[in-house]
Amino acid sequence: MADRFTKMHGLGNDFVVIDARTHAVEMTPARARAIADRKTGIGCDQLILLEPSDSADARMRIFNADGSEVEACGNASRAVALLLGGTSRVETLGGVLTLEALGDGARVDMGQPRFGWEEIPLAFAMDTQKIPVGWEVLESPAAVNVGNPHVIFFVDDADAVDLARLGPLIEQDPIFPERVNVNVASRVGKDHLKLRVWERGAGLTRACGTGACATAVAAIRAGLATGPVTVSLPGGDLHINWAPGTSILMTGPATHVFTGETDWSRFG
Q1: Under a CB-based contact definition with an 8 Å cutoff, are residues 249 and 240 in contact?
Q2: 159 by DSSP, 3-state: which?
Q3: pTM over the 0.70 mark
Q4: Between β-strands 46-51 and 13-19, what pairing exists: parallel, antiparallel or unpaired?
Q5: Which of 73, 233, 240, 248 is catalytic?
Q6: DSSP state for residue 114 in the 8-state scheme
Q7: 73 is catalytic
Q8: Under CATH, what is the fold of the domain 3-104?
Q9: Which among 80, 136, 196, 212 could bridge 231 via Cys, Cβ 3.0 to 4.6 Å?
Q10: Whether 44 is catalytic
Q11: Catalytic one among 36, 208, 213, 220?
Q12: Is the CATH code 2.60.40.10 the one for domain 134-253?
């Protein structure tokens, strides 16, 4: 039996979205990896599974290309906002998000950031505004949880960092018991940041919505920006607004690529 899916992307961060709210689809790490494979599957950075929710309009499950299930994905949230239309509430492992479709994009209330070392989480207590650790040229990152864990390094030139080599070393360091997303950012101007992201379980990505949120929050917290902040990623720009004690608002585009059909049993 063929099931429908939608291929979408947010600034080049691409997804296979399966709407399983009325027809259940069993998803395993192995199946998610097979679907995400760009040579033998459909191909994506993340697989998004929409299911019924008792507390919101839908439950969004997020699987990285390596099959790991994660708590949050900002770019996917904007894609789901377009699919659902209007204003909706979506349950995730990282909390309930409020989504608002806006033409060819969306605004997402990502909730309040968390800064406690045990909320990131880290392996032991440290100052999360400036963690006293380093990996070669990358030192003293900030740590923020925005539904998933991030570390942010502010550097003179984000493009000069060998993130393809350092990213996996930092992601899998024992100091991060649940692994971590790695962000390197540099200031372009007042309230404008350039960002590159090594995404936990997916690798280098053209865009990371939660990374943009975490980086903007860390910059505001450190006095490097006041907000709203424009975050320029390889795939394009996101606009992040946050003030201490409030929720993070992320605004940016999302794109429908195509709709297809397949038999999920073909993927194991």
Answers
A1: yes
A2: helix
A3: yes
A4: parallel
A5: 73
A6: B
A7: yes
A8: Diaminopimelate Epimerase; Chain A, domain 1 (3.10.310)
A9: 212
A10: no
A11: 208
A12: no
